[in-house]
Amino acid sequence: MGTLVTLHLPPGSPIAEQPWVITFGSLDDSEDWEPIVCGPYERRHALALARAVVIDDDLMAVVEPMLPLDGVDAIRKEIDLVRSAAEGPDAEDFEPLVAQEYPEEPPEPAEVLAGWRRIAGRLTA
Question: Comparing C-alpha atoms, which of 27, 46, 48 is closest to residue 37?
């Protein structure tokens, strides 16, 4: 069984609506291959796909949001926000994910395509 790592989000977090990517890699140094990054996906699709892949394999999956930022100023602003937040509460304030946050089954390819259309619509709106 592998490992799935992701962010714990409070209910209603706007980050949940961002596109998400999955990085799959070796769980330890015994395998010599480059990690792969898949996505973008809607968060629930990313969690379900990652879980389905690592459940029977010794892999690590990191599920994280993508920030579609449109330029240097936007990127710098986001970096400043993250740096400011790092000076705030300790990591001990985070709670582990509860089982209900993981969909039971991975989405079908048609569901992933529908998710891509929704993501594209949000990015181009």
Answer: 46
